[in-house]
Amino acid sequence: MAAGSRAVSVLRRTLTLSPPRNPPRAAGRRRAQQQQQQQQQHCGAPAVPPGPPPAAPRLQPAPCAPLCPQDSLGCGLRTCYRYLNQTSRSFAAVIQALDGELRHAVCIFYLVLRALDTVEDDMSIPLDVKVPMLHEFHSYLYQPDWKYMESKEKDRQVLEDFPTISMEFRNLSKVYQDVISDICHKMGVGMAEFLEKKVDSQHEWDKYCHYVAGLVGIGLSRLFSASELEDSIVGQDTHLANSMGLFLQKTNIIRDYLEDQMEGREFWPREVWSRYAKKLSDLAKPENIDVAVQCLNELITNALHHVPDVLTYLSRLRNQSVFNFCAIPQVMAIATLAACYNNQQVFRGVVKIRKGQAVTLMMDATNIKAVKAIMYQYVEEIYQKIPSTDPSSNKTQQVIASIRAASLPGSPVASRHHYSPIYLSCAMLLAALSWQYLSTLSKATEEYVQAGDN
Q1: Where in 265-336 does DSSP place strands (E)?
Q2: Which residue from 349, 374, 332, 362 is spatially nearest to 436, judged by alpha carbons?
Q3: Which residues are catalytic?
Q4: Statement: the pTM of the whole predicted model exceeds 0.70
Q5: Is the pLDDT of residue 88 over 90?
Q6: Which residues contact residue 14 at a Cβ distance below 8 angstroms, ignoring those fewer than 6 apart?
Q7: Are 133 and 151 in contact (CB under 8 A)?
Q8: Taking a C-beta distance cutoff of 8 angstroms, is the pair 400, 305 a contact?
């Protein structure tokens, strides 16, 4: 992607899915029953006459969600979750761990944006075709037969089988549909704007990251509130939601410098890198490594400014599954920035956090107090690596001071929730099991797809 795949880019979950624990909204019950019959017929199973909806009280998060076979889902949803696992190595597990009907809404949201991004990323689509597609992509959600069969991208299945995704989109409650369609429209317009435009100023860097990631954060926050699992303020405070997305996107852009250069993409803002080199690609030359690292450190300092907003956002969350969904990528991001800071390897290869380190972060990031401690730990690691001669050293020290203040016990960013040890133990077990199976099943999926291509 030029960018969206990172934005809508922690694990491939191999455990079975549990059904929504919250009852469907009253207005959608008949539609859900009718769709179940259609899906059963589509999958070759006999239709079952609709019965009364099960009497299920609205529950707060239970200590551990009961698991059931994926066969309990309709054919279309099972297909969507299969696409989710095939296209996302970042959010598949945490999406499937979300509570209730929110899980399906976020899954469809992800796939819609993945399809949009696949169009944006496909260099074989002429601009005179691509730009209108990006502008109108949100309208395809309401066209049952629309699909695109000419893509050359690895995730092209989400375009080729878009009718299944759009069908499940139309089966969502209207409140979810409105959010997804609105964000898809805005993101498509933003992607089209930057197709032939490079990121020059830091303001444009923020704008670009807003289009491809900040809007994702805003959309997700509105879905959280619409599900009533979170307070309305979570969806209304677009500044904090935007910062959540920008922090992740800037981290990916910073880390992926070399990969983007090799594929002819440039996302570092000219306003910054032009102070260190004549061309962005010059930073990868061995003779420029010192100034390249200084440029890297300045961009990391810029990204760190979002951390106080991240902590404030997370402090407002009251549902455990939503908290895990939001917190895990953020602690992964701060650990990645700490690994990248003042590190020449960014310009020579790939900088990644270790799998064991990632598992520890996933197991620990289950409440705001723990997340604050993690943020504090990694900014201290960055602080210890600040070169006295670095041009951005004073700014880096200042932003770290603000993060320290927000991370200390008794700071204004206070936790609103206390989760039982049983629930946290289950969350940690899920994280460990998911990561354990990630490499094996991802490899198996790739081999299966490659065998099919051959």
Answers
A1: none
A2: 362
A3: 208, 255, 265, 325
A4: yes
A5: no
A6: 433, 434, 437, 441
A7: no
A8: no
